[in-house]
Here is the input.
Amino acid sequence: MGDKNSSVLIAEPRGGWHDSLSRALPGGGSEVVAAHGAAEAVTVGRSLQPELALVDLGLSHDCSLVADLLAACPETKIVAVFDSAEGFPDGLSDVMALGAVAVVERTTLATDLFPVLGTRASGPLGPLDPAAVPTDRYIDLRNRHDQQRRVTSRALCAALEARDFATGQHQNRVTRLATSCMRLIDAPRAVSDEVVYGFMLHDVGKIGVPDYILLKPGPLDYWEFEMMRAHPKLGLQIAEPGGFSQETLDVILNHHERWDGFGYPRGLSSDEIPLAARVFSVADAYDAMTSDRPYRSAMSPGDALHIIRSGSGCAFDPEVVDSFLNLEFLGSPGVGLGGNG
Ligand SMILES: [Fe+2]
Here is the structure.
C-alpha cells in the first residue's frame, strides 16, 4: 500500500511517462507506479489510493477509465492525457465533468506537467494548477464543454420555438420568473448554468409531441393529454446526449411533479422533487395562467397568485410559494403576460 499523500499512478500503454516522471520527481516520498491497462490501473488505484493519476485515455474506448478510477480511488486527482494526433476519443468532452482536474495532450512533456502537479521538494503535492500548463498544450475541456452546452441549448430552444412560437416565448418568460424566485431561495443556484439550462429546456420534449396535439386550438382529450404528458421523458431523451448535468436534466424530467405526489411522470412528492423543479413548477403555473390560450383568455396576475397561494402544500412546495409571493414585480406590465404556456 502506497502513501496516499505522495504516490502517483501513471496509467499508459507505454512506459514513457512513467520513466521520465520517475527520474524527474524529487526523491523521498514519491512513489510512481505504472499500469499498462485499464483493469490494472483500476486495481492499482484501488490499492494505492494515489494522490495523483495520469491517465492515458487511449486505455479505454470511451474515457470510462476516468470514471472507473474515480470510483476506485475517489480522492485521487486525475489528469487525463490524450493524443490529439489520433483524434478526440469518444467521451472526451465528459472527462472534466466526470471529475478530472485537467486534460492535456500526450505531446506535453513530463517536465511541463510539474507546474500542474505543484512544485515540491518533499512532502505532498501542492494544489493542482491547470492554468500553469503551457496554453498551447492544455485543453480546457470545461470551457469547451460549457460552450458545447450553450450552443446545444440555443439550438434546442430555437428548434422548439420553430415548432411552436408561443412555447418558445413561454420558455423565456418562465426562465426569468423561475430564476428570480430561485434567487430568493438559493442565490448561487439562481445563476448556475445547470439550473438555468433546466429552466430554458424544460419543455424541449414538446419537440417530440405531434403537431395536432401540440398546436391543437382547444382542450386535449384523454389520449392526447397522455401523449402531452410524455414530454418530460421525451425531453430527457433529447437533452441527455447534449452533455447537460444531472441538475439540468432533473428540471426537465420533474417540472410537472407535484408536492402532494399527484404529478407526473414519476409521482414524486415533497423533497423527492429536486428543488429547482419545485421552484420551476410554481413559475410555470403562474405563467400558464396569466397567458392567453386559443380557448381562453389570460387570468389576471392577482387571480393567478390567489390560485398559487391556494396550491401551497398540495400542488406546490409551501416555502417556494412564500418566496414566489414575495417577488415584488409580479403583476407589473410585461411579466407573466401574453402567449401560450
Ligand atoms: Fe412542461
